[in-house]
Input
Amino acid sequence: MATRIVMSKLSPTMEEGRILQWLKKEGDPVESGEVVLEVETDKANMEVEAMGSGVLKRILVPEDATVPTGTLLGVVAAEDEDISAILAEAEAVATGISVGRADAKPGTVPPSGAIPGVAAAPHPATPLEPAAVPPPHDGGRIKASPLARRMAEERGIALRLVRGTGPAGRIIKRDIEAAATTGTPAFGEVGTELGPEPPYERVELSQLRKAIARNLVQSLGPVPHFFLTAEIDMGRVLELRAELNKSLQDTGLKIGVNEILLKTAAQALLEHPDMNVAFAGDHIRRFTRVDIGIAVAIDDGLITPVLRDVAAKGLRQISVESRELIARAREKKLAPEEYQGATFTISNLGMYDIDEFTAVINPPAATILAVGATQEKPVVVNGTIEIRSRMRVTLSCDHRAVDGAMGAEFLATLKRMLENPLRLVL
Amino acid sequence: MNAEGIKDSYDLVVLGAGPGGYVAAIRAAQLGLDVACVESESREGGLGGVCLNWGCIPAKALLESASLARRIKDEAADFGVRVRGYELDIAAAVSRSRQISDRLTKGIKYLFDKNGVMPIFGRGRLAGGIQVEVDLKAGGKAVISAKNIIIATGSRPKTFPGFEFDRERVISSREALELTKLPERIVIVGAGSTGMEFADVFNAFGAKVTVVEMLPHILPNEDEEIAGVVSRSFKKRGVTVKKDTAVETLEKLKTQLNVTVQGPSGAETLECDLLLMAVGRKPNVEDIGLESAGVELDDHGWIRVDKYNRTTADGIYAVGDVAGPPMLAHKGSHEGFVAAEHIAGIATHPVARDNIPSCTYCHPEVASVGRTERQAREDGHDVKVGKFPLSANGRALTAGAPDGMIKIVADAKYGEVLGVHMVGHNVTELIAEAGLGRALETTIEELASTVHAHPTLAESVMEAALAALGRPIHI
Output
């Protein structure tokens, strides 16, 4: 029996994916469960397996193309099997496939006027041809509902620039409403006149970049942030680290400041459970476990692997597990459940010699801790100036769930713990 | 694999073989999944759920009997057909309805076989994670693991405290479908579609029927004007309808039931021999292991689902009545499609919840889709209404059914069809045009300019659209 290879939803946030590579050619024999292609999702590169055996009868979506989840990518069937029904079905659905590389495209777009491929697009504000004569849409007829046509006509929106979200890409009422409110006729399309503008290079968004944009707009938009900064004396943490590492010399294990921060934050959250929360519309979720996300920079963005139940783990285990997670994050090999659902996040830019910074909350969590570099600086201690190792941290809080005093108390606890770190090793 | 041929694991296990569950099972099997469907009704005929066995289908069979009876009694002579010495036999009508149910449930068994869906008869429940445990009817227990589960356990009639079902004199729709004898006086509580349909049947078979409705109009979900037409028709036929009236107490005597009600004219006692409670349904969510699997309920007690019918537990879906109103077979079936397709990973569109038609098969029939005139105005629309009475439709007159109308509620600006409401002969067959039109986002212009065959009842839809545009021809 013929089986379909489909762009599956590989993570809860995934809406589309890019074909990285077909590992089989048309006509190649395929076993059920065998990997046939690689796909780039919004968070990771994933392998897609065949659900049945036979030959790879047809490849429907080429490498580098980006398609919505649910799109038929290929068909596996017996060599002599008739798959025309499946292909007809796919054809009916196939619209809106965009082919483009995720890196910078050479070629400069002129300041105004002729943008290749869309130069002929009418200005949305000018009246259009009567709706009875549909304008060409990639050379074919535009599928649009009568209501959508009437609305577009009256509002002066060019149907060919609107991306349809109805069955089989049909343009329906909500698409016109969306086009009218966003002012951009279609997702990612250049259709509106941008006016005089310096020359630029168009850089396509990678799936990851799109996901970051979506999530962070979601954050800074509806999430009212406030920020609390504290400077912490790290002298004793550094001493503790040195001693721990000396004693661990024969094991090959190393404890870093990051791991001590993870452990301390988890301990502090246990003392302040109201900080281990998420704002969930009509209620606040107070998490009963501390799962800390660790912001990791990767090639074209960032990802936040989550270390689970940190409070229950010792420094040794935290070190082993977090290093392993971070290594796999850099290789883009995390499973969705490994980078989702942090109850607290730490973003450390100390290695870039940043004094201090503010971080944007990654919803649904309510907090994120931005950690700067530990620096030697003069500090007044008991009336005399001493050189101390100091680190500045800034806590971003979602004000819907957390108030200033709560955040300040948490930060005070964190500071006290880091300045008296011996208890952590217990 | 055990003795019954039940395997240890499936791609998908569906709990319940009603119109939500069996459709989901068949669709998933068509998409290449290995599917089992668990049904708790003891007999093989349990396939098809309430719809086929204790709801839509047998009820419609009885309503056809009622319609025929009424036509013979009131209309046949006018049509030139004089019938003498006919008798009404509710037991025969019920027996006919059971045969139709049996035939359809066998059809589902055939479809399961054809598509390779494994039916499992027994009481299934979630057993933590994505696992189902079944107390098999044949004896013993099966534990089945699955990649996905669809809960489609349906709903059952509910009643008021003090009016508990005794299944003999205080009954639900289920018992009403198996009455072999009709008592003289029947009180029906609830004038929704179930209450009005049974009022129609009992009235046609000669019982004295009183319907009690708490709200100010019958068929409370329908457009008021439409409900008014039904109300007048029932009154003409001798059905007493008490609106704005609440039932208070029930006294069960040996010889009769006394139902005290409180209405606009004060308290009174209704004497009857049979009390049918048609006051709604509640979801079957008890003892199916929802807690163990982390499936949450919403504030009203239905299983909480998203637009693809996913529950709060990974890999577990819920469709049909158990996932919330409207409790209609076709809504459940469509949710079954969506869940199955979502599980199989193919492109699917969530059920358009604002475009689910609703039909009541009493006489005259009622059908509607979309917003009522009142709702559309409350939504803030500048509303245009087009109405066409069936008394001006040729086909309705030839059928001897001039009572009724088609009413289209449109947005004035673009002519968007916000709602279509119908009452009259066979209108349940006409509502599909309105549903399709709305799904395709047609405006009243297209409804008016589409050539409709003559003479048909469907011409009234075109005429109502013309009326909304201010240019009707036949009124």
Notes: Residues 11 and 147 of chain B are 5 Å apart (CA to CA). The first helix of chain B runs from residue 19 to 30.
